[in-house]
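Hi R.,

Here's the chain you asked about this morning:
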Amino acid sequence: MNPTSTFSSGLRTKNMRRHGNTPIPAKKPHDIIPAIGESLRIVPLGGVEEIGKNMTVVEFGNDIIVIDAGIQFTDDDTPGVDYILPNIKYLEERKDRIRALVITHGHLDHIGGIPYLITRLGNPPIYTREFGALLIKKRQAEFPQLPPLDIRIVEASDKSIPLSPNFKVRFFGLTHSIPDSTGIIIETPYGDIVNTGDVRVENENGVPVEKEVEQYKIFKDRNVILFTMDSTGIDKPGFSPSEASILKNIDAIVAAAPGRIILATFASQVERIVEFLNSARRYGKKVVIEGRSMKTNVEIIKHLNLVDVSHIVPIEDIEKYPPNKIMMIATGAQGEEFAALMRMSNKTHKFVRLQRSDTIVLSSSVIPGNDRAVEKLKDNLFRHDAKIITYLDSDVHTSGHGKRGELEWVHKQIPYKYFMPVHGSHFRLKMHAELAAQLGTPRENIIVPDNGSIIEIQDKGNRFVKLPEKAPSDDMVVEGLNIGDISEVVIRDRKMLAEDGIFVIIALINTRTGRLKKSPDIIARGFVYLRESQELLSEARNIIKHSIEGTTVGMNPINFDYAKNAVTEDISRFLFQRTAKKPIVIPVILGV
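And here is the predicted structure, written out as tokens:
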């Protein structure tokens, strides 16, 4: 028996209904959620079945605190969707009780949902560190129609901030990959709830540095009733390379580069970008910043005076300097189609043509799901004969999410009663739960949640349970100007269009006789090349004629919907038999 199966997990099972020949999930009526009573309730609305769209609700009495409001980026399973949001219906129904939104740090999977969700939540005050506040304001400026945000900047050293009779909040410093990363302590009547946000442990050869030890001394005498922690890196053993060692290696590469040095990394790796700027100054290089998000974050770095930026020059001036005096810091290490590095690699960049003497450092790992895009990027880059350095052949990147050894060390710093893993797909949560059990936490004190799970600490802290009821958890999506529930039918149709195309039938019927006035017109896109498929089209027209007239001749008045359904079914069957494809069939039948 798999030992992790003893944890409470509640994998989702969905009733299925059929749409045409394709099963799709049935809409489930919302569970009737019981009154909270004297319980301390925790509801993860996002971030526990995926990496992204992090949001967790903490509730007691008439008071609610929300931790983070992130987005998830889309993939091939969500064509036409801009972003995926946590489902906040549970909060919308209780928005008068929301006392605050507290933010762990400024990455989009923790703050990206704010412009789309904040008014639906009643525009509560937002408590965040300064760097997170600047990123939130920058993003909010893109939505001038929204009311002003109530942002309250806090320090990691601040004492507890009262938010309501039942809640106080306190921030504590920890290590991630962006300035002002913090964990959250929510003081409740039953004890502290601790949420780390995203976390790693700076170390030297697997030994945490003194700063890390000091950061966690705050928990020595605290009563932590529930610990919730980032699980993203749990599947990787040991400790990550230290950020200091990564920067040392990159500094050596910069010093030895014979020509231009192009450093591609996540725009969110702000602390690393600061050190890149320091390195350029050390070796007398001018710096070019490429990529919209990179420029935004460098503007914030400049605003906060984190580093001297006087040696940054506009890309238009790049030819004014010798190649060995240029450092470019760019986005696009994930192979994004229109990002700066991809445009350089495929020779579509307006100002940059790669040269043999260039050194390109991909200072990032591959995000799951981006493998093919990164391979394409690397293929393009290697065609230029420049020197390419990646994290696979040199230590030029370390994750902002701690590996298993780091997470284990953090567990040992925080004495807690109950544990709930967050921030990761289900298998990662299960692995993290197993780690907590191996470290001595009773299995009945560990719950692995799903999005929408309602977790309660009952009997004044003596019981840790997951209710059978769930909060609404179907994804919400952003599509252009619209925000709403994801439509399974729309997504299914988009996938079919992408995979098998569209087959449009235009037929004119004599309403007196029920017969076609002429041979039906056919328009196909993404299905077959019509000029080479005349025999197929001729057969299709015959089937269309027989199908329509078989239902309309003698019918008075003509039931056009019935005729459309019949021809759709008949022609879909024929096309699949002849081509093994299932294009979307759209009949247009007009009476004349």
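One quick note: Residues 159 and 170 are 6 Å apart (CA to CA).

Cheers,
M.
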